Amino acid sequence: MLPALLPAIVLAAATSGSPAAVEVNVTDLAGIRAAVAAPGATAVLVTIWATWCDACRDEMPALLRFFHAHQPKGLRLILVSADDEDQRDQVALFLRAAGAQGAQAFIKQGDNETFVNAFDPSWTGAIPASFLYDSAGVKQRAWSGAVTPKELEAALRKVKKPTKGKP
Amino acid sequence: MIVPTNIVLSVALSALATGAPAPGPAAATKMKSALDGKSVSIADVQGKAGTLVVFTCNHCPFARGWERRIADLANTYSKKGIGVILINANDPARYPEDDYPGMQARAKQLGLLVPYVVDETSGVAKAFGASVTPEAFLFDRNGKLAYHGMIDDNHKDAAAAKSHYLKDALDAVLEGHPAPVAETKGIGCGIKFR
Questions:
Q1: CA–CA distance, B28 with B20 (Å, rounded to integer)
Q2: DSSP string over B98-132
């Protein structure tokens, strides 16, 4: 189920320079949790989205600008797509065109109901949805619907910095 | 491991709890129906056996996937004493497909026999704590929320659905029994509130 806009975006990207490829892996919840909890980040932002979701596609440019501005300070961005598992190429094409280099990209594995219930009890299943974690993988903030860079900035400032000597 | 903590903040609205009644002001809100242009409220359609409110829309792939089943359940159970109303709370400025003419066309195409109405301020959806499309709220004959959530467990393929949550809940409510499953969650398009 590709949005009509997608081929145009991909074409534009293909003809105007070559944004870096983004590797997309089909991963279960445990894999996504492991990526969130992996050491080395000062904060981790997880956004759940899909190529078929208008609001998600609209949110992506500002989200990526925010990420790239904070990536040097240790922010990790994990993009979890709710697209079908066989849509890997389309998801990768979209993310490449959107300039999502540096982000970790997954397609969630398994059925939606199980994933929504297990990922976060506070999440209604509406996408886009974003979750901000501190360096220890502890959730600090969640947003249902598109989140603005201003909201992200404010939330990120409140995230506790990792203790020195510990990842 | 992700550990939920007490500092979790969420902007997600909390939906009505099982057993709760429909919020009064929202249930009384008159909304224009795409079937005939008449204004109708949830209270107006209330059925003797129960009342089904479904927040849905035209544009969302999940709503599209389930729309035939929503229409069939709505048309079937409205004849059995369940009052049914379908509500579109999306902002058509954001999703042009969700405008009134679009709703009229969809209602006709689906052969809807129940109102498909415009929640002009999204106030009804907010009062219910609805957040995705489609999202069903089924009240029993006493007006208590008996089921809240998805239509079934497969939006793409009706034949492949294994758990028919809403249909099973409707059958239970008709018999005056609790729904076998009272609440479900699935991925859906976030409602673009006005």
A1: 16
A2: GSHHHHHHHHHHHT--S-EEE-TTSHHHHHHT--E
Sequence spans of domains, chain B? 24-39+46-190
A87-139 pLDDT per residue, tens: 999 999 999 999 999 999 999 998 899 999 999 988 999 999 999 999 999 99
Nearest to A105 by CA among A40, A33, A27, A30: A27
What is B24-39+46-190's CATH superfamily?
A: Glutaredoxin (3.40.30.10)
Question: Mind telling me how many Å the CA of A143 is from chain B's nearest CA?
Answer: 6
Q: Which of B7, B11, B192 sits opposite A140 (nearest CB)?
A: B7
Which of B2, B13, B58, B64 is best to mutate for the A interface (most A CBs within 10 A)?
B2
What is the pTM (predicted TM-score) of this model? 0.87
With an 8 Å Cβ cutoff, are B12 and A144 in contact?
yes
- Residues 52-111 of chain B with CB under 8 A from chain A are 59, 61, 94-95
CB of A15 within 8 A of CB of A100? no
* Domain A19-158: CATH architecture, name and number where available: 3-Layer(aba) Sandwich (3.40)
DSSP B46: -
CB contact under 8 A, B187 and A143: no
